[in-house]
Fold each of these.
Amino acid sequence: MSWSATARYGLDPAPGGLGLVQDLLNTVGAGAPRIPDLLAEVAEAQAWVDEATAQWAAVTGQRVPRVALDADGLTELRAFRDDLQEATAKAQEAASGPGALALVLHSATAALQLGEGGLVRLEPRGTGWRRLASLALAAAFEGQQADTRRRLKTCRNLRCRVAFYDRSRNNSGVWHDVKSCGNAANLRAYRARRRAQNG
């Protein structure tokens, strides 16, 4: 089993539960030729949700949560994904330093649970799309605590925006694929500079 939305772009997943955040971001239609949006219709979205929650359970060692989508919930889930994508892109831009307090885009319910081994666990709550949002936000929070969240990025190519996990030593990656996105962007920038010089 794998993170199906991320696998269709040929990318390695982010570690642990952060893979759910990356996979949710990668449900968007992107690439050339354009890969379809997995959240376009309820049936396809539910199939993705079922696979993603099963994979989340496999990597976190927790039970598979039941998440049932309907048309209204799918609309909300797409809006959540879009806000998550925008926040991920802005986090890359703002990595240079702290900024002003940001507007809260979404909130989700979770509980802290103490296990018999003494470990405290964050237990996402909610139903429908809110349950999935809670899982994703809990995974992002845990990624922040482990300092892995900052490595989850979206491709700088505005025509792409695929989410990738930056495994570079200095966390400097900006393209999900240097060959398809980086080279094309660098070529466009080179041609623009040449036109300006010859202009």
Amino acid sequence: MNQKLFNITDEQEMLVETIRDITEKEFKPNSSELEQSGEFPFHNMKILGDLGILGISIPEEYGGSDGTVMDAVLILEEIAKGCYITGMAVLGEIGVQSKAIVAYGSEEQKQKYLPGIAKGETILAICITESEVGSDAGNMKTNSTLEGNSYIVNGTKQLISRADVADLFLVFTRFEGEQGSQGVGCLLVEKGTPGLHVRQGYQTMGGEYLWEVEFDNCAVPIDNVLVRENGFKKLMTAFNTQRCLNASITLGLAEGAFNEALKYTKEREQFGRPVANFQGIQWMLSDMYVEIEASKSLLYRAAINAGKGFPDKIEASVAKLYTNEMAIRVTNQAMQLHGGYGYTKEYPVERMVRGARFGALGGGTSQIQKNLIGRHLLKTDKIF
């Protein structure tokens, strides 16, 4: 369906067509193998790096293309239609990690790290989650104590994406044992730093691996402090970008599953005619389509309003909550429309069902989004 997307520029339409073509020709044919192996898609990332796609969130003076949040949303949406694993890898490069360095990093940090990120030569990992700390990030236990010109980091992070291949880790840490969210900030820790250990990978139902990252008296130069004062608030503001980009991947998965279901129901015949001709099937397809369009409107609003900055907290939460839950419903309906074949690995919809399930867990659960939205509603007696 070649509907014109609303409020996007001619350049963005060209960007969408470029990514769609690459995904169909390069990423989608190998998506099953990547999902089964869980391997990082280095080949696909090189293609995108060479095209300058991985620098979309980075200013031109550091080798990027100085794009908008909407550009990043469109990129991930298209990639996720064909390859969830590649979409998740790209999310790590154009999402909160690079945006945080751009927004909060020193000039030296930007010059040192951003050009490599833009080229796809520096892989990023963000380390927040701990065994007892998931949504309650303000109570993390990982601690950094200043000794001379270095911070000594101790603690363990869990369920970390890309940790096995990362060159640079953005580590959420508590400074000097200061309690509460005010004590939380972020350090940039390079691969190979003594005391940094990546252990025990867990393969997810979507195919990618998540890792444990341990810091054992890991000495990090003081110059590698990304955020210290008012750090937690700044990092959570940057994280609004991740909410939108998380939603863009699940939107793409829903759209990809819908496309597969539409094609299948037109081809599959029962009782002498395509099953798409039955009213009940058309109603299912209609419901799926409307849900996708509603999600797209919410997500695009948040992304367009953000420009090159960070999305509004409530707009991002609303978009993430609805899109994540929508993707679970739509991909499951797409499987249902395939009948028994949808449950087999011969058809891509079962991968999309599994991939879509990540959205409501990563980047803040659906329940956390409802908490954020609920607190916002209670601040006033009149919303509309």
